[in-house]
Each structure stands twice: as structure tokens, then as C-alpha cells.
Amino acid sequence: MKKTLYIIRDIAITVGIQLVCFMVCLWIQNSTVENALIPAVSIFGVFLTSVITPGYLYGVAAAILSVLEVNFAFTFPFFHFNFSIPENMASAVIIILMALITCGFTTKIKYNKILEAEREKEKIRADIFRAVSHDLRTPLTTIYGSSSALLDPDNDFTKEQRTKMLQDIQQDAQWLFRMVENLLSITKLDSGKVKIIKTPTVLDELIDSVILKFHKRYPDQEVEIDIPDEFVVIPMDAILIQQVLINILENAVQHAKGMVHLGLKVFLVADKAVFEVQDDGCGIPEEKLKSVFYGSHEAYEVSSDCKRSNAGIGLAVCATIIKAHGGKIKAENKKNGGALFRFYLDMEEKEQA
Q1: Spatial separation of the C-alpha atoms in residues 57 and 107, rounded to whole Å
Q2: Long-range contact list for 57-62, CB < 8 A, 24+ apart?
Q3: Is the peptide bond before 77 cis (omega within 30 degrees of 0)?
């Protein structure tokens, strides 16, 4: 369906540019302006079509249309096709060659942009896998070591020691589960295998669900909530947006050293819903702000508890999910200290290009 719409759009662009150029040429012919400008206008229309539309088809089609228009309407004998005159044939060849060269040039530029984007994706993917290899090693080692110690009959642990070791195993297993969830989300969304299906979601219910899940993991961490009093409905994939908010809140708990206050705020600006998560901790190093969503392990302040330092993965997932929703996400440091994460969602669903 989208491919058909793009084809219709490109045909409309090609025909529209040709019609405009034809009308301008008619005006030139019927005015005191020098008629020598007519070929220049036609060539400009071909050039414009070649630059705007993809590939060779539309540019060459525009060139052929321009040749026919100029030959039929603006060269003697008027309103008759005449390619027997050498000048007319030369003009036709030049216009078509120009279209081919322009299309080739613009296609190469577009292809280079695609390659550059792919290289950037590969770099981000490599950063993510580096982070994964680092982040998975410690909890797996802890699980293996603790389980081996518990299974060793020569170890005589007290009940409290066994309980503590089992709790550590459980916590590490839960952390690994969340890591795998994040990796699955970012892999599926990046590959395009998962299409975002937005449904009208009540803001109050979304926030309640986020806080409930967050407090299951961090029962002692208070979150200051500030949302509109009125009834707000936002189109979104609620499960994925919950994951974004929980990842950012969890990131603050794990990495915002010295944090006392943690806040979640939602407000409306024009046709956007703005979500903000802010803390009063150590903030983000200035040199890391631009790469904080790129999945790099060093993207954010590393926690003293190294087995919980998964900021790069969680934030990369957030950026991927928000991008898939057609929104924007950014991070900054507050003037009075601490970090602020902000993302925007459309209040009305828009068709994704």
C-alpha cells in the first residue's frame, strides 16, 4: 500500500512540475520575454524532477515529456512534431542525457546516505553487543558461583546465608530477564519485524501501571507524579511505552548517584504529550549526552554495582521505541543538578512514512 502511494506521489510530482513548466513556457511565448528561455525552463523542470524523485524512471520520463512539449508547442512548425531538424534532435539528446546524468548523480548521493545510515546502525549495534557482553558476564558469574556453592555438599551454610544467596540468584535472574526483554525489543523494532499498533491509552492507567511495576522492583524509591487533572487519552503501544518509562526510572535509581528526589511529569503542548523523568543526582557527563541513547556501555555514569550497569541497553531501547512511535526523545542536565529525560508523543495518530 505504501509503495503504491509513493509511486502515485512521484507520478504526481513529475506531472505537476511538467505542467508548471509548460504554463511558464506558454507565458514566455505570449509575452515580451525572450523565447530562448523556454528550453532553459524545460531543462530546469527535468533537473528538478530528477533531483526530487528516486531512480531514473521519472527523470527520464520528464525529459521525454519536455522534449515532446518543446518540439510540439514551442518550435516551428508549431503544434506539429518535427525531429527532422538537426537542432531539435540535438536538443532532445542533450535534455535526455542531462536527465540521465542528474538521476545518476542524485541516486548515488541517496545511496551513499543509505550506506552511511547503515554504517551508523552497525556502529550502534556493535556498541550494544559490547555492552551486552560486559553486562551479562557479572550476573552470570554470580549465579553460577552461588548455585555451585549451594550444591557443594562440603559447604555448611546457615539458613540465613542460603536464603541470602538464593535471593541474590533470584535478583540476578530477574535482571537478566529484563535485559533479554530489552534486547528482544530493540532487535525486533530495528529489524522492522514488529509494527507499532497504537491504541487509545488513558494516561492515568498508564502511569498507575508503570509505578506499580516499578515499585515491585524498587519498593523503597518514591516517585513524585505530576500529570494533568483532566482525562487524557494518548495513542500508543502501552506495553512499549511502559517499558520506556520503567527503563528511564530504573536508570535513575541505578546510576544517579546522590539522588534524593525522582519525578515523573506529563503535560500537553499543542498536539503533543510530553513525558519527563528527572532526578537530582549526579547528572550525565557533558561528553556523553550526545551518545546516551546509542547503546554504549560508557554512555552514562557507571554504577558502583557493576552488575547493574545496563544504562546503554535500556536507553537504546527507549530511543528505538520512541522513534518507532514517530516521537522524539532527548536527555539533558538540569541547571540545579541532576538529569532530565524527555520524550514526545503525538496526541493524534499520524501515518508513519
Answers
A1: 11
A2: 58/10, 58/11, 58/13, 58/14, 59/99, 59/100, 59/102, 59/103, 60/96, 60/99, 60/100, 60/103, 61/14, 62/14, 62/17, 62/18, 62/99
A3: yes
CA dist., res. 323 & res. 321, Å (int): 5
CB atoms within 10 A of CB 78: 10
pLDDT tens-digit readout, 279-316: 999 888 888 887 788 754 444 444 444 444 444 567 88
Report whether 217 contacts 250 (CB < 8 A). yes
pLDDT tens string 209-247: 999 989 988 889 999 999 999 999 999 988 889 989 998
What is the DSSP annotation of 191-208? HT-S----EEEEHHHHHH
d(CA 237, CA 247): 16
- CA dist., res. 4 & res. 172, Å (int): 49
Q: Quick count: other Cβ atoms within 10 Å of Cβ 132?
A: 19
Which run of H or E residues covers position 234?
strand 233-236
Q: Strand 233-236 relative to strand 199-202: parallel, antiparallel, unpaired? A: antiparallel
User: Residues spanned by CATH 3.30.565.10 within the chain?
Assistant: 195-353
301: which DSSP letter? P
Residue 283's closest CA among 218, 337, 346? 337
Supply 261's cell numbers.
528526589
- CATH class (in words) of the domain with range 195-353: alpha beta
Residues with Cβ < 8 Å from 60, sequence gap 6 or more?
96, 99, 100, 103
